[in-house]
Amino acid sequence: MSSGTREPVPSSVPRIFSKVEEAKVGSYERYFVDAQEKKAREDRAAEGERREAYEDVTNQYYDLATQFYEYGWGQSFHFAPMHADETLRESLRRHEHYLALRMGLTKQDRVLDVGCGIGGPLREMAHFAGSNITGINNNQGQVERAQAINKQHGVKARLVKGDFMAMPFADGEFDAAYAIDATCHAPDLVGVYKEVFRVLKPGGYFAGYEWCMTADFDRNNPEHLRIKREIEFGNGIADLKTTEQCKDALREAGYEIIEIEDRHDGSATPWYEPMAPSSSVSLTAFRCSYLGRFLTRNMLWLLESVRLVPPGTCRVQKFLELAADSLAEGGKTGTFTPLYFFLVKKPAQ
Fold first, then answer.
1. What's the DSSP call for residue 185?
2. Over residues 289-299, mean pLDDT
3. What is the strand order of the sheet 200-213 is part of?
4. What is the pTM of this model?
5. Exposed, middle or buried, 305 (CB in 10 Å: 0-12/13-18/19+)?
6. In which band, very low, low, confident or very high, does the pLDDT at 44 lie, cut at 50, 70 and 90?
């Protein structure tokens, strides 16, 4: 995904969504309480079940959602603060480059991408910094898709199918590590941060962007709670943490904190603008705009009706639309951010 590389476009819409499985849709939906109940109460039992089954929840989610993400957003599954003169894709690249620059990555560094998705940021980091990058991902389909795209673009990177809560790497194997919108899926932030700490060399940097509820989030406010629960349901997350919980987890894991900030503050264009544009047409991310989503919704309904896409495709589209709407609500109310930046360091001694 260098500036001169074009992302491949699938040959047909039915092919894009061909891997949706209706049984998986129902299985995923059962992990979460009914949407109407979520508006009225906080279901601690359901939340606990999702934490215990996080690996299944996350895999079910990405088995269903990956093709939709790539179709509507691209190969980098994250958000970014946007400048007024930027396209969405340009802002995503700059967001990734910022991590490489802050960690001071070089061609000699061995770097870990924690929760690498289909490898969009990994490829950009490889092009930009030239580092030797390893990506870990617990979803087999995403690993295979990343390998295929890497091969197509001649990117040499190691991709490992594995759990970032118990990684198959030696102590001190990496010079640096980063996580972009990935560790929000962890059942225990302290646990995943400690595991990254273990595989870092002494003095190594860990940087990332975390999905968090902000200081403006009020757990006793029913609307705030609804937004949180709908973000979790629409994005395969057991329990979103607050910014303070994230900061405390990094400290508890043993890191020296260099810098922490919400990168949304001061951006010219809100990170959620592509999903909730001021007009019905978004020029930077048309497929995610209101009009783009309307057209996709009706196209999929028609294709599912004539069995050109699998049963359940429209249900996946529906909960992903809920995800987009709730994320935008979280951004507009200031109760949620996907841009909680951290730069931390494993002590040299």
1. G
2. 68
3. 158-161, 132-137, 110-114, 174-180, 200-213, 336-345, 256-262
4. 0.83
5. exposed
6. low
